[in-house]
Amino acid sequence: MVLDFYEATSSLISNPELRAKVRITTPPTELVYTLFFTPCLSTISRLCGVLALHKRAFEVAMASKPNSTQPYEKDYLNHFNGFLMDLCNCLWRSRAFNTSDINALGCLLPAPIFDTLTTYVSNVDSSLSLPTLFNLSYSPSLCQLTISYVRELEDKVEGEIEARHAGPVTQSSLKALQGSGGINLPWPDYRLGALKYLEREGAPGVGELMYNTMKHLMTARDNKP
Questions:
Q1: Distance CA 100, CA 27 (A)
Q2: pLDDT band at 218 (very low <50, low <70, confident <90, very high)
Q3: Residues 178-215 pLDDT 10s
Q4: How many domains does the chain have?
Q5: Pick from 73, 102, 132: which residue ends a domain?
Q6: How far is CA 163 from CA 151, 167, 178, in A?
Q7: What's the domain range around 58?
């Protein structure tokens, strides 16, 4: 019901005839992170879709007014941009809970809890790190589909490869896989392909947020067959 509400309000602020009359109201900070760290992929996708619509609405609103009469205060925009930075850090940059980036809120995770979880993760597996566990390959909600994307590519060239990826996918594991006779899949192609695969499987919001937050991805998506 919460997502239904924000999807409805997003449609209002995206309507050209209503933009001048409807103020863009961002979701509460705690709500964004509660929804993002759910185990439900559809919830994550819908949240990302809502934030992508909000971002586009802010861009249109700020571009339509002279600098002296901007409709939204800088702090208000920066706080919203903190949501985008945090989600991109989790999903794309493998820098979950980072607070050093501009506007980053670290998903509101207190530093003592971050330290405790970091120690726990390293004790479970010394090759893992907490900031990487929420990216496309490792996220509990996304990992099944992203490795399925790789499996689909491998199935297409099954007779031409000698090894398959064990998963989860990393930049170094893809290089090692190619060296052992596996599929040739560059890291940028994997991540862009994974976004398209998520869209195809009914989770388009993740890609929409990435494309709208990192403009070079939009160009890469349009240029990739």
A1: 23
A2: confident
A3: 999 999 999 999 999 999 999 999 999 999 999 999 87
A4: 2
A5: 132
A6: 11, 12, 9
A7: 2-132
Q: Is residue 225 domain-resident? A: no
- pLDDT tens-digit series, residues 103-156: 999 999 999 999 999 999 999 999 999 999 999 999 999 999 999 999 999 999
The verdict on pTM exceeding 0.70 is yes
